[in-house]
Amino acid sequence: MLRMPQFELVQPSTVDEAVRALAECPGALVVAGGTDLVPNLKHELFTPPRVVSLAAIAELRGIRRESDGSLSLGAMTPLAEVAESELVRSQAPALAQACSLIAGPQLRSMGTLGGNVMLDTRCQWYNQTYFWRQALGFCMKKDGAVCHVVKGGKNCVAAASNDSAPALMTLGASLDVAAASGRRALAIDDFWVADGIYNKQVARDELVTRIRVPATGAGHRGAYGKLRDRGSIDFPLLGVAVRLELDAQGAVAQADVVVTALAAQPKRITKVAEALAGTKPGTAAFDAAVEAVGALAHKQCKPLPNIPGDADYRREMVPVYVRRTLQAAARREGPVHHV
Ligand SMILES: Cc1cc2nc3c(=O)[nH]c(=O)nc-3n(C[C@H](O)[C@H](O)[C@H](O)COP(=O)(O)OP(=O)(O)OC[C@H]3O[C@@H](n4cnc5c(N)ncnc54)[C@H](O)[C@@H]3O)c2cc1C
Ligand code: SF4
Fold first, then answer.
1. Which long-range CB contacts under 8 A does 269-272 form with residues at least 24 apart?
2. Could you tell me what percent of the chain has a pLDDT over 70?
3. What is the CATH number of the domain that holds 18?
4. 20 to 30 A from 286, CA-CA: which of 116, 123, 279, 302?
């Protein structure tokens, strides 16, 4: 049986108390729903002296529409609530769809949006028990000095595997971040660091308090596509978030595609807007442009053997999921996945 390491549990009821509890104990960690942190504690990937629970902080919960039409989602909002929210489904369909495909129903009830944004990177050589990792001499993300994915590699390439992240990137979201030293806003595009050991610009003693999604209009279309082993529960082998903005004539004015589960940060595919601009969904020109975007994504995405699933197969599935997810968004459908 895997046991939890010992730690002090602190249960603040305000954000200020929480950030103080983090600041006064170096190495302390936050727990939200615990659906990722608890298995990681049992695997001895983290051995914090203190764990600060966010469960009793009321201001971290709930979804609301602000006066400028933007959405404000509390970090402690359960994934199931994000997935089912009419506000999110209508204004940010890619986010609702991504959250609807995270893990399984029980985990979506426990797991939170903030915990998903802050999810640790994943690797098949790392998400293992201490005994398993020890047998291999560990690796540089935890307790060791080598990388088993890139032989001789100097950087950890564990994969960003949080499904909400690419959707939030296509939506131009930002994070409200609190620390003992003050509060700040951070654009999700500035959140990432290309280092699988810790891929975030939010430090361990900081809290994500809210996730903000700018207003979208009538021409907004979004969808999420996910490749995974078992349709009912698995982490992504690939995640594809897309955004289309249609003008008054129904032609594409703006477009964005972000792919995740590749390396430490999700990848925005370049030249997508140029390829799709001016085409109208439902026409041969749009279909040809979608085909071209799939080819761009195939060229730009090179999955590694960091997470389970054959890397060559995952690469061949990139254009398939990009095409299907773009077409689903155009038809106001999605998510794209197999069950
Ligand atoms: C079987 C299984 C399948 C899963 N499948 C998926 C999947 O398909 N896709 C996916 O994305 N995830 C998946 N997960 C992971 C996890 O369930 C989700 O990512 C969930 O959203 C994590 O949220 P949580 O509230 O449980 O986070 P926790 O486990 O509580 O925390 C996760 C990390 O975030 C930090 N943290 C949490 N909240 C905050 C905050 N507000 N501010 C700062 N730091 C914070 C914690 O310190 C910790 O490092 C799966 C987990 C399991 C066990
Ligand atoms: S990518 Fe390399 S260093 Fe990073 S977790 Fe995997 S094996 Fe370890």
1. 269/293, 269/296, 269/297, 269/300, 269/301, 269/322, 270/296, 270/300, 271/296, 272/296
2. 100
3. 3.30.43.10
4. 302
CA of 151 to the centre of ligand 2 (A): 10
Grade residue 232 by pLDDT with cuts at 50, 70 and 90.
confident
The predicted structure's pLDDT at residue 191:
98
Ligand 1 pocket mutation, candidates 19, 102, 108, criterion most atoms within 8 A of CB: 102
Atom of ligand 2 nearest to the CA of 146: 3
- Of 123, 81, 120, 79, whose CA–CA distance to 101 is shortest? 79
Contact 112, 76 (CB under 8 A): yes
- Which ligand 1 atom minimizes the distance to the CA of 228? 8
Give the tens place of pLDDT for each residue, 35-48: 999 999 999 999 99
**Quick check: ipTM above 0.95?**
yes
Q: Which atom of ligand 2 is nearest to the CA of 155?
A: 3
pLDDT by residue (tens digit) across 49-84? 999 999 999 999 999 999 999 999 999 999 999 999
Regarding whether 69 and 169 lie in a shared domain, the answer is yes
Domain boundary among 194, 213, 232: 213
Output the domain CATH number for residue 68: 3.30.465.10
In a mutational test of the pocket of ligand 1, which residue from 119, 126, 202 has the highest number of ligand atoms less than 8 Å from its CB? 119
| Residue nearest atom 8 of ligand 2, based on CA coordinates | 139
What is residue 338's predicted lDDT score, i.e. its pLDDT? 82
